[in-house]
Amino acid sequence: MKRLSRRSFLASSAASAALLGLPGCVGGGVAPEAVTSSGLVRVLNWTEYLDPELLPTIEAQIGDTIVYQELWEDNYGGQDLFGPQWDIVTPTNWLAAQYIQDGSVQRLPLEFIPNHKNIDPVFLTNGWDRGARFHMPWQSGITGIAYDPNLTGRELTSV
């Protein structure tokens, strides 16, 4: 039985249900690599996008250790951080498209990603990655915070 590599599994599945981080891209060249595991997955994500308390659960599910860094503060500065030292990066779509066009990411092993079938068709028809073969979206649109002033006892005017 083949086992997913750190690059193949987390980057492709964007870390099971919990690490479904933005468009996950895998560092390295476009040539597919053998599906193996080194036991370590290195993730570069936006700050405060994943509850660090979820990492042990994800590690138990995938059987690998996750080195998780929240250093991606914007797409411009993130470009300076992108490189082969990361197995998963989480740029916004336009930058994911650039990485794919530049040949800087590897194709996802879709045969090992059962949730790929659940991707909204709108994300499967991007001209820069037809079929979402090199990236997987996590969320789209605007994230909002709702609250009930009766429960908070006041209007919230800042985060």
In words, what does this structure look like?
This protein has 5 helices and 3 strands, in the order H-E-H-E-H-E-H-H. The chain is of the alpha/beta class and 159 residues long. It has a single domain, classed as D-Maltodextrin-Binding Protein, domain 2, CATH 3.40.190.10. Strands 2-1-3 form a 3-stranded parallel sheet. Strand 1, helix 2 and strand 2 form a beta-alpha-beta unit. The longest helix is centred in the middle third of the chain and has 9 residues. The radius of gyration is 17 Å and the shape is globular. The N terminus is likely disordered.
Describe the structure concisely for a colleague:
This protein is 23% helix and 11% strand.
What is the count of DSSP helices, taking H or I runs of 4+ residues? Answer: 5
CATH fold title? D-Maltodextrin-Binding Protein, domain 2
Number of domains as seen in the coordinates: 1
Q: Estimate the mean pLDDT confidence.
A: 78
Low-confidence stretches: 1-23, 27-31
Described by the principal axes of the CA atoms, the overall outline is globular
The ordered H/E elements are: HEHEHEHH
Strand line-up in the sheet with most strands? 2-1-3
Could you give the count of β-strands?
3
Helix content: 10-25%
Q: What proportion strand?
A: 5-15%
N-end to C-end Cα span = 48 Å
Q: Mind telling me which CATH architecture this is?
A: 3-Layer(aba) Sandwich
Radius of gyration: 17 Å
Provide the structure class. Answer: alpha/beta
Q: How many strands, which pairing sense, and closed or not: the largest β-sheet? A: 3 strands, parallel
Output the CATH class name: Alpha Beta
CATH superfamily: Periplasmic binding protein-like II
